[in-house]
Queue: 2 jobs
Job 1
Amino acid sequence: MKKILILNGSLGGNSGNTEFLLERLQKKITSSEVVHLKDLLEKKIDIKELKTKLQNADGFVFTSGTYWDSWGSPMQYFLEAATEFEASDIFMGKPAAVMITMHSVGGKGVLSRLQGVLNTLGMMIPPMSGIVYSLAGQLALETQSSFAEDFWSLEDVDIIAHNLMTAVNRELTYKPWPVDHKDPKRLWVKE
């Protein structure tokens, strides 16, 4: 069975709005494990411990709330720490989905930027594998507004699960570009 690693970059960890999306997702992808990146930021786990989980994963789901038009600081910390794995077998060609929550604005930009970062790290972004679930969308759906179909819904989480697993189960071979793995933290700016 293929393993999916869910990386929750929300500030709320396992108690925020994003957790509701994760619960629904885990019903569809039973071979998944959640890592709350808040624990990485708070030094309860380290990147070396997480590296093994990343290596053993066949695909990923990245989640975060929206904070000042960006992802949560736990996600940012993870991305900075994981830079040393760029274009390595840890990420190369593995499918990744993204789920973002937001109150009202900024989430679509967060989704698009995060998908771009993940692709640059070496991951594949399957079609229809990103969602922004918003308070505004939920309210529109609850009131059965005529424009409710234009908002992502909880049912779209099921589509993300399906498309991610479709991508995970295909045989794809990609080549990485050369990356300096010896010293990713090298100082290069000089006066």
Job 2
Amino acid sequence: MIVASCYFSYLVISIALTFWVARTLHRNGRVFLVDAFRGNEALADSVNQLLVVGFYLINIGYIALALKTTDPLSNFRQVIELESVKIGVVLLILGAMHFFNILVFAKMRGRSAGLGSAPPPRIA
């Protein structure tokens, strides 16, 4: 029963974090994408939605793959330690994906503007 409760709490926490990060990036990344695509809002919105779908697929896929454990879980301490490692890896993956996306779009923005050091977009 301890293993099942560990799996359940890991899934709930990890998936909730994935949805929260995806919604935050989707909502706040729009201005950045519109600027990267030189004002083409339709393209920016489309790419933003595609990024969210890919984000969900990669992260929830990893969460499902990392669910399995062969560690013996005989007390609450072992459950917490196992979950902290698994959730920590999920958070590192979320952060790495975020910074990779920012890097790609920053390079696109620099190329489209013809300037490598253009100032960041302003939020109105």
